[in-house]
């Protein structure tokens, strides 16, 4: 993509130079001798501004590409039933700081995630037991595993502090998801839900330096398989 952009902009630059060269030649007064070839070269200002524009556009494209390379997506794990949901806009509130999961004997019933100090909407059903995990300041999810059938059966979150936060007891097709890029962490969740959480998608990226910090101490209110 960058090579194509470079080719297009260089062609534009040469075209502008030729256009001005032609304009100078056609505006030469009659009866005067043709000036030396060097005097017909385009002014430095045109060349300078053209290549400054070229440099800025290429730098912008490169910066966007570098930023894009830090993000990746895993999933969607589960079935196609249920209504779609996404926490994309909530990542602006800050990193993931807490997770609530409602489980019964066989399924992940419901799911809710806190970003910074803001909780997402709850999705799923209302049966089963509610388990809640708070992350420590600076702690992030770096891998997720689980299992699914018609619905999600289990979810396990692995953090950069070495904690393993597990929810659910059912059995199904096993998955394990990690980010593609170094230093990326789980930034937000998407998926499908109805009476249960039917599917989940995991979105990875680095945490911006401007992300709101969380000062609340970590605590845990969880079932016997929840992390501490």
Q: What value does the Rg take, in angstroms?
A: 28 Å
Number of helices: 2
Oligomer: single chain
Largest sheet: 6 strands, antiparallel
Work out the strand percent.
Answer: 35-45%
The span between the termini is: 47 Å
Q: What is the H/E order?
A: HHEEEEEEEEEEEEEE
Give the helix proportion (percent range).
10-25%
Structural category: alpha+beta
Low-confidence stretches: 1-10, 37-41, 61-67, 217-228
The 3D shape can be described as globular
How many strand units?
14
Overall pLDDT, averaged?
78
Please name the defining characteristics of this protein.
alpha+beta, 228 residues, disordered C terminus, six-stranded antiparallel β-sheet, single chain, four-stranded antiparallel β-sheet
Give me the secondary-structure topology.
Layout: H1 2-26, H2 44-68, E1 72-78, E2 83-86, E3 96-103, E4 108-115, E5 118-119, E6 123-124, E7 129-134, E8 141-148, E9 152-159, E10 164-167, E11 173-177, E12 185-193, E13 197-205, E14 220-221
Antiparallel strand pairs: 1-13, 2-12, 3-4, 3-7, 4-5, 4-6, 7-14, 8-9, 8-11, 9-10, 12-13
Helix pairs in contact: 1-2
């Amino acid at each position: 993509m960058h090579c194509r952009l470079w080719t297009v902009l260089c062609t534009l630059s040469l075209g502008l130079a030729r256009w001005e060269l032609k304009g100078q030649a056609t505006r030469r007064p009659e009866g005067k001798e043709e000036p030396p070839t060097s005097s017909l070269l385009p002014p430095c200002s045109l060349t300078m501004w053209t290549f400054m524009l070229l440099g800025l556009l290429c730098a912008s494209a490169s910066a966007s590409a570098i930023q894009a390379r830090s993000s990746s997506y895993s999933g969607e794990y589960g079935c196609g039933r249920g209504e779609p949901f996404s926490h994309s806009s909530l990542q602006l509130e800050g990193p993931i700081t807490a997770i609530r999961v409602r489980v019964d004997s066989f399924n992940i019933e419901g799911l809710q995630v806190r970003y910074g100090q803001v909780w997402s909407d709850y999705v799923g059903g209302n049966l089963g037991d509610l388990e809640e995990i708070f992350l420590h300041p600076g702690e992030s999810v770096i891998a997720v595993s689980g299992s699914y059938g018609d619905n999600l059966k289990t979810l396990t979150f692995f953090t950069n502090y070495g904690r393993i936060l597990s929810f659910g007891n059912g059995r199904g097709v096993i998955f394990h998801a990690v980010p593609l890029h170094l230093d990326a962490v789980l930034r937000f969740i998407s998926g499908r839900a109805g009476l249960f959480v039917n599917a989940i998608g995991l979105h990875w990226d680095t945490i911006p330096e401007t992300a709101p910090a969380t000062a609340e101490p970590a605590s845990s209110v969880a079932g016997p398989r929840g992390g501490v």
